[in-house]
Predict the structure.
Amino acid sequence: MCFITLTNEGTAPDTVKVTDEIPTGTEFVPGSIKVGGVAQSDLTEEDLKTGIDVQVGAGSGNNTNTVEFKVKVLDAGV
């Protein structure tokens, strides 16, 4: 499982574009992307590469959100 935690501690825009590449030696598990713990089964590995818009919130305080997805390890030596 891969986790990306987003925190906005100030006045940055409340929506950010999150991108990530699947680690070498692994394979993306289709339908596994969650944003804020909610399944986003329509999002794909390509969406992750090109960017997923994620609401974080702005203003005072620590506004957070998470993106998570699963990968399958292909090579135990990774």
